[in-house]
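User: Predict the full complex structure for these chains.
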Amino acid sequence: MNIGEVAERAGLPPKTIRYYEDIGLVKPLRDTNGYRAFRESDMHKLAFLGRARALGFSIEDCRNLLALWEDQHRASADVRSIAKDHLAQIETKIADLQAMRDTLSDLVQACAGDDRPDCPILKTLESSA
Amino acid sequence: MNIGEVAERAGLPPKTIRYYEDIGLVKPLRDTNGYRAFRESDMHKLAFLGRARALGFSIEDCRNLLALWEDQHRASADVRSIAKDHLAQIETKIADLQAMRDTLSDLVQACAGDDRPDCPILKTLESSA
DNA sequence: TCTTGACATTCCAGTGGCTGGAACCCCCAT
DNA sequence: ATGGGGGTTCCAGCCACTGGAATGTCAAGA
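Assistant: Here is the predicted structure of the four-chain assembly.
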């Protein structure tokens, strides 16, 4: 399988796949012409990576998840722990963003948005958000 | 005012302030010894930037907000428009993160997290999230 | 006066996770 | 032979810093 087909099937851009090889996440074989030759197993790994990345896992998390996935003797606790940590980070991010949103939303509400210079948004940025 | 004091008062690391000068957001004077000499006005700009960044505005947004702030004849509509666009992006990010959180939360719930290899998290990553 | 230590300076490199682009090679159909 | 659509490599850039090295400056204490 060439990179184009894998890209199609895994739903990842070829560039990303090359990058993943670069950083050692997949190790496709090579045809005599130098083209990457992906096995089914490479495809599955890439699809796995695509899904993990879509859930926001970092590349390093993905690397670890992949290793656990391939390890028959893994403990599900290890997987769960990675996911839980990640979940906590996401919760934090959501909370941060919600705080921003609330503030911003108030400010946008309060601003007339006309052609006059008077602006509560700038006033707030000027001194204490 | 030296960079250390400004950093303290504006709540930004010295490195960040140097960076902001690099990209032209502030233009402090220089003492004869080569040290940056910040005026009160530089300090206020930096504090403004710190608050805008804390609300998640991009550097380019900050640049524009700063220009509007300094423009006596600005229209508040221009400020509001930047804030509204940014707000919309934040809403999108929140929604994305919430979707991730929901999925992850379900998966973490479903995973026993013991020493056995059976793991619904990996199963999901293996085929369709 | 000398030294120490806390400041300051510049410049280069790295972070994460790609993405764009240039310059080139390969293969198949016309 | 030619054209087009693959593939390859490598280098650079994105964003917003951050770390670190090598060096310079200043004020206070022995």
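The helical segments of chain B are 3-10, 14-22, 40-54, 59-70, 76-110, 120-126.
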